[in-house]
Amino acid sequence: METKTLNTQWTDESVIELVRKLRNELIKDFLDERFLKEYIDTHFRIRELSNLKIQFIKKDLKELLISPVNTEHYQPLISHIKNTDTASLTENYERLFYKELEVILKKYMY
Asked: What is the pLDDT averaged over residues 8-28?
């Protein structure tokens, strides 16, 4: 039996950089107060957050923006990109990005 090796264009560094780029684009969306409020209303049924809570959320989002990618959290996506040699995101993998941000949101909502 012959073992087939997939020749991939993706290095560990390039995959992590892609994940970071995608994560940061989403964070920037959430830094827009209108988007943030709409998301919280739609997904958590919370219509009003105080300005203070919004400022704390934005502060944490900005810190996340400059932080390294949590490779453990994104491991399923990282493995998928390397194994399939494609960067297309299914809804399951896209959800990873939202889950990371929701940790911050929930910290100030409840």
From this structure: 92
Query: Global pTM?
Result: 0.86
**What proportion of the chain, given as a percentage, has pLDDT over 70?**
93
Contact predicate 31/58, CB 8 Å: yes
CA neighbours closer than 13 Å in the CB half-sphere of residue 90 = 7
Note the Cα 20 to chain centre separation in Å.
8
What are the C-alpha distances in Å from 81 to residues 18, 20, 27?
10, 14, 21
Spatial separation of the C-alpha atoms in residues 34 and 88, rounded to whole Å: 28
Contact of 101 with 26, CB cutoff 8 Å? yes
Check: CB of residue 93 under 8 Å from CB of residue 22: no
C-alpha 26/C-alpha 73 separation (Å) is 16
Identity of the residue numbered 71: T
- Smallest CA-to-CA distance from 57 within 47, 67, 65 is with 65
